[in-house]
Amino acid sequence: MTRAATLPQGTDGGTGGDHSRRQLLTGIALLVVGQWILSLLDATGKTLTQQGLPVVAVAWVRYLGHVVAIFLLIGPARWQRLSRPAAPRLHWLRGALMLASTLVFFSVLKLMPLATATALNFCAPLIVVALSPWLLGERPGLHARWTRWIGVGIGFAGMLVVVRPGGELDAFGVALGLLSALLFALLQMLTRRIAAHDAPMTTLIQSGVTGAALTTLLVPFFWFEAVPTALQCALLISAGLTGSLGHYFVIRAFQYADASFLSPFLYLQIFSATVVGYFAFGHLPDWTTALGIAVICAGGVCVAGGEPLLRRIATRLGR
């Protein structure tokens, strides 16, 4: 875990605290903007797949648009410099996982509301905690273990409330949602390993290139049954733009603030997914689902932000 960034305690007339505060607030703002853009991407994917467009074809356009948009955003010189990864095999594996996660999540969106699907996907950090001792070799201290596993338990309970076995949600959709969370968790763990070798922008470029290459191989078998309408073409193009810009803003956010500081704010995407889902599809979670989503968020925040709090309490107690 990286050291938690905290807001400065008060202002003492110096400029250092104000500058640090501005950086942290900038990081939060960039993250929130990125999350809203990614929620628009999810709404676009849900719209297109529900209208019968093949998931693979939608993903193909999304990744091609991702590559083009990032190329135009950073320019040829930076593209050439940043598109040479130090660990290419890991990037290809990560790109394949990201593509699989995209395909599964778009399939989930066909079967359940946007906010519910997003909430299930946010079980991924809980899965990371459960698997990281074996797959990443992470052995946190006692306080961190307690906090993380309490968070996992809370998040799992929230997931059960959302799913409500035997309830109204499509059972196949729930299974796909949990598979999507598992793939996303594996993607996060692999991203941690890659971060030791390459810059975040290199990872962003390589994920787009890998996704575009793999979907180009697959798309002939999942081509559009009819020529997309003008509106569908516009939505397909927007998927590439929102996918690249959303991830770009999130990466920029983590350049202004530590991951441990920003991690609890990641759960704000469930709010953006709820708002976008309401305006795009008229979906609002019922009270029970909303309670389950809140419990998942509480578990995730406990995992992400509880460790520094416990460390400060232990320090105050002299342990």
TrEMBL record:
Domain EamA residue range list: 26-163, 172-302
Listed GO CC annotations: membrane
Membrane-spanning parts: 24-41, 53-74, 95-113, 119-137, 149-166, 172-191, 203-223, 229-249, 261-281, 287-310
InterPro entries: EamA_dom, EmrE-like
SUPFAM superfamilies linked to this entry: Multidrug resistance efflux transporter EmrE (SSF103481)
Keyword annotations of the record: Membrane, Transmembrane, Transmembrane helix
Protein name in UniProt: DMT family transporter
Organism lineage: Bacteria, Pseudomonadati, Pseudomonadota, Betaproteobacteria, Burkholderiales
